[in-house]
Amino acid sequence: xxxxxxxxxxVVGAGPGGSKTAEEFAKRGAKTLVVEKKQQIGPPKxxxxxxxxxxxxxxxxxxxxxxxxxxxxxTVLVAPNGEEAWIDTEDKDQAGYIIERSKxxxxxxxxxxxxxxxxxxxxxxxxxxxxNGKIAxxxxxxxxxxxxxxxxxxxxxxxxxxxxxRKAGLNSxxxxxxxxxxxxxxxxxxxxxxxxxxxxxFGSEAANRGYVWIFPKGSDIANVGVGITGEDExxxxxxxxxxxxxxxxxxxxxxxxxxxxxxxxVTSPIDQMVSHGxxxxxxxxxxxxxxxxxxxxxxxxxxxxxxxxxxxxxxxGAEKQFLQPYQEKWEExxxxxxxxxxxxxxxxxxLSDKHLxxxxxxxxxxxxxxxxxxxxxxxIAKTLLKxxxxxxxxxxxxxxx
Amino acid sequence: MSVKIDHEKCMHCGGCVxxxxxxxxxxxxxxxxxxxxxCIDCGACIKVCPVGAIKKEEEK
Lengths: 401, 60
Ligand SMILES: Cc1cc2nc3c(=O)[nH]c(=O)nc-3n(C[C@H](O)[C@H](O)[C@H](O)COP(=O)(O)OP(=O)(O)OC[C@H]3O[C@@H](n4cnc5c(N)ncnc54)[C@H](O)[C@@H]3O)c2cc1C
Ligand code: SF4
Ligand code: SF4
What we know:
heterodimer; A: alpha/beta; eight-stranded mixed sheet; seven-stranded mixed sheet; 28% strand; B: two-stranded antiparallel sheet; two-stranded antiparallel sheet; globular; binds flavin-adenine dinucleotide; binds iron/sulfur cluster
């Protein structure tokens, strides 16, 4: 195939964000190329594979039994003292699936290919081509050989460790305090509380400033993982292994089929997600729900927005001012909400194990389900205040009338 | 001084790349590469690595 022609858009990275972006650009008639450094789309996953129904609707995806493996109808929150709060999400926005991500990613790439885009694998973007102060393509190392590929727009969908953002001079270094270090085992033979409920374990012993999760992929198959603050001296692996040892009854018939690790940005998106001829999509712009680290849905949504703004901009020369509306649109539609959620996160980061126990014992499941809402947060703050008056210092700011 | 990667332990997840302020880590196909001449010894990569594959390289 001849890849040397000039492309309208080159997407770097064939993760969920990259493939969706490519599909949306190609669907609107743009000549689109995706470069992916791995030799296959998908594995290794850096992911717990949770995806809600609502995100699938936003991304126009129907459930598909080859990758929507396990229907999720609720969550079990477990406090440090073992107190459980069962939340039912069956008919709510938060219902969803644990997916088989490798199949899901390949399907997204297939959708993009059917819409007209081309893919190049084992092709690592090593640098950007710059012409007259504008980004005009990527320098790729393909199977060891350097090649230069030109385009009007480059989309960096190359994940949290994005090289594209850095090479474009956008400040994308993730501060340690604003990321979670994650480690996970996919296992078979796990004793699940309920194969349709996600289990989340909180507290300093399970996970410093994070949680342990069990996401079921089948009746006895699950992703068992942990996310802790990037600042912790101990490793995520240390936390997970220790937690599993303390809960070994659940795993006595289980064995590991896959080991995963990765870092999740749990902070605000980067200040600048566009430049002359450049757009960032997904983790590369830190578009992640800062409460639980879910980033598949936001990456898909951003891919659609990028094409909606990017395609008309192609005709005008793809200067920054024509791409800037992408950032504005994203901030309006998603960023504002994530900012509120970040506030909830900061609240939870201040809670001690004792506070978490109190919440599990006293809070109404509906309140726990809608934590992103100011009213819910206020109710939780009031609950804490009632049972632990000394928490007034930090709790009072969150109480609204 | 610099850091040393245990390639046997490394999961190629790119975590260290995300937090490195000076692009002294690079994830190539199936291998993480450290560029000691750029490294400023901030230690961020050591802390974030989910499996403890990065250690301080002791001066000889
Ligand atoms: C432990 C863990 C658990 C998680 N659990 C969940 C979860 O349950 N649900 C959820 O929604 N999210 C979860 N996330 C977050 C989620 O995985 C990410 O938000 C999501 O993958 C972002 O998609 P993306 O397309 O932006 O980037 P990625 O999925 O990271 O894709 C980037 C792609 O770009 C390629 N690439 C990178 N650099 C280059 C280069 N220079 N040249 C060419 N190609 C390149 C990579 O190989 C990769 O294929 C989790 C993350 C971690 C670490
Ligand atoms: S963070 Fe650790 S496991 Fe991940 S790529 Fe870097 S050295 Fe390897
Ligand atoms: S010590 Fe700091 S500068 Fe050196 S590689 Fe690690 S993160 Fe980068």
